[in-house]
Amino acid sequence: MFACCASMATNSAAPVVGPIPFLDTEKDAHGHRQVSELPSKLLAGIQQISLRRYQGFWLPESWVPAAVSIQHRFKPRPDDVIISSLPKCGTTWLVALAFATMARHAYPPSAADHPLLCLNPHQCIAFLEGVFLGGPAREERLEALPSPRLVNTHMPHALLPQSLVDCGSRVVYICREPKDMVVSMWHYLRTVHPELSLQDTLDSVCDGASRCGPFWDHALGYWRASTASPDSRVLFLRYEELLRDPASNVKRLAQFVGQPFSPAEEEAGVLADVVRLCSLDNLRSLDVNKTGIVGPLLKTPRKALFRKGVAGDWVNHMTPEMARRMDDVVADKLGHTGLDFQ
Ligand code: PAP
User: pLDDT of 182-195, one tens digit each?
Assistant: First the structure.
């Protein structure tokens, strides 16, 4: 409407560009609304963490600009491998396994100087949200990484750039039984928010208003992408399956990223070494994982990333009513989809 009025106002060659509605200047260069315009909520039980609803998902407020930048500025490569998850679903373990697997020729997993022995797994991989919040220098470092790159994100599939799907980057997703995810999240957040109750954590997850939630849409987006075709570029893993049989799942992972373990490597114990290097007991015992904080975005202690590492711990914390509430949400939101958490 503005353009039409402008052309009526003058016939001169110079295009008239003003005035425009002042409100429109709140949109960013890509025409998106400003963060301050998006629906907001406080994460239940934690007054300091504010969420914004962006394209159907509740993101931590500070991650929204990162989500926009990832969509517009991340330049995926066909041989990129993207680890994706909701928080507390096995990210750290999968990151360690993927790094150890993909870097095994440069860094044999049995080597005494393996990077995972002196770096936290999250320091071995670029966290996309952190990169795109970190300014041009961090983006340049991401660009400068040699291929194949390994990065991770908590972004929902629907928020990944279309160019990532188009160019064929591989995505490895890990999901976890939601009651265990809730219990893990509660323990983790309590390290910096001791006032947080399990009930509040459960409520936020069941209401869909937790970090990168609704959890059912997050998992479903990746599930559908993984089952869309036999040659899907999305591998869908489950934390519980990794616990049951880590070696088989690491083999699947290696195959998927185009670096299968050869019979000779298996014979030599390389696969077993990867599993051992990334085991909870090993990672937890390392000095680097006993000290320090996870990163500038989340000031939780690193040691909180390595807690119990089992399936079914929810029975030790949830009342039957709490468990029923979550099971009802899962049945309601996912019952008809073929995605389950067995
Ligand atoms: P993040 O998304 O913040 O990185 P994430 O690693 O997904 O967290 O979740 C931590 C959970 O994975 C913890 O579960 P718990 O609270 O139920 O115990 C943690 O113990 C578990 N975990 C971390 N490393 C490993 C590992 N090497 N093997 C098995 N489980 C692990």
Answer: 999 999 999 988 99
Q: From atom 12 of ligand 1, which residue's Cα is the shortest distance away?
A: 90
Residue with the nearest Cα to atom 23 of ligand 1? Answer: 306
Q: Which helix (H) or strand (E) holds 217?
A: helix 215-227
Distance CA 100, CA 233 (A): 21
Q: Is 193 in the active site?
A: no
pLDDT in tens, 248-294: 999 999 999 999 999 999 999 999 999 999 999 999 999 999 999 88
Q: Say what the pLDDT of residue 295 is.
A: 76
> Which residues pair with residue 185 across a beta bridge?
none
Query: Per-residue pLDDT averaged across 34-44, rounded?
Result: 86
Q: Which atom from ligand 1 is nearest to the alpha carbon of 187?
A: 16
Contact predicate 305/289, CB 8 Å: yes
333: three-class secondary structure by DSSP:
helix
91 alpha carbon – ligand 1 mean position (Å): 7
Residues with CB under 6 A from ligand 1: 85, 87-93, 180, 184, 187, 278-280, 283, 305-309, 313
Contacts with 286 (C-beta within 8 Å, 6 or more apart), sequence order:
117, 118
Residue appearing with tokens 């679903």: 89
- Is the predicted pLDDT of residue 9 greater than 80, yes or no? no
CA of 33 to the centre of ligand 1 (A): 35
Long-range contacts (CB closer than 8 Å, 24 or more residues apart) made by 253-262: 253/97, 253/98, 253/101, 253/172, 254/101, 256/170, 256/172, 257/81, 257/98, 257/101, 257/102, 257/148, 257/170, 257/172, 258/79, 258/170, 259/101, 259/102, 259/104
Query: Shortest CA distance to 38 belongs to which of 25, 56, 22, 24?
Result: 56
Q: Please state whether 98 falls in left (phi above 0), alpha (psi between -120 and 50) or beta.
A: alpha
Cα of 1 vs centre of ligand 1, distance in Å, is 53
The verdict on whether omega for the bond into residue 320 sits within 30 degrees of 0, i.e. cis, is: no
Q: Write down the catalytic residue from 114, 122, 154, 193.
A: 154
pTM over 0.70: yes
Token readout for 79 is 């041989």
What distance in angstroms lies between residue 88's CA and the mean position of ligand 1's atoms?
6
